Amino acid sequence: MRVTPESRSAVRPRHFGWFATTIMTIALATTTPAQAQNDAMTPIAIPAQPDAIVLGTGPLPGAKNAESWHSQYGSRFARNVTVATLTPYLPDPAKANGTAVIVTPGGGFRTLSMENEGSDVAKALAAKGVAAFVLKYRLNQTPATMPEFERSMQEMFSGLTRAPQQAQQSSQDRMAALAPQLADSRAAFALIRKRAAEWHVNPDRVGMVGFSAGAMLTLATELTGGEAKPAFIGLVYGPLFSVDVPAEAPPMFVALAADDPFFSNGGFGLIESWQKAKRPVEFHLYEQGGHGFGMYPKATTSTGWFEAFARWMEMHGWLKPAR
To answer: What angle do CA 92, 96, 100 make, to 5 degrees?
Structure first.
């Protein structure tokens, strides 16, 4: 039986036994292309976002630092996001197939890779006739100035060896820390279904794809139940630890590079969990690609993950017009 809101508090520890041991790792997993490890962070003005829709989940509790953006690796990143938004990237109405995908960027819950794992993905989906929506979810607060932020990131990475000790917090405590992001995710599903007719979306064909921390949020959205109920989920370089799979879990697509410095050595328990539950799963393990490859053009087969994802969607009928 699917996890219900009433039973969620009892199920969280069971479903999220992996959470306490992975949240520190994923917080350390910044979305960095392997070929550009030393590119500097350069502050930029917050870009105009005329199509962004405020989700109404409220300001981040206790936030003191305002949203800011920077460029790195030829892409744009947001941090200190205190108000969640959803930005539609709609296909040509003549090509619209009724499927929608919420695109969830990564960045260790400290930043969001708004282009490489956000708008670039959404535009590629829209070209396939899919209504795509980039979720700019609320983030953990970081220092306001760039020098302070860079120092905090260096300190965070230097603490990698201490992560196992810090990860001993209860899964309930860790889930409480993720509560704002889960609220944002559920609000995104609710908004898309509310405006489904306007956006030419079939309410039963709304899926979600996430990257790194965004993959973790995507999986958590499914496992915690509630009204989101993704039609399918895509996890790109997220953690692959075992979970208890709900009986009605949706089809899942997973992509990871074998040289990912964060998640390639943790086993493939998530894949095995889906298989044991007899739920559909497709897994692509690329020889090279590192962490954070996203839509960056690279001379590795990991660059082909998007077309593999699109073919998987096509196989399930999600790229055909909804009846």
So the answer is: 115
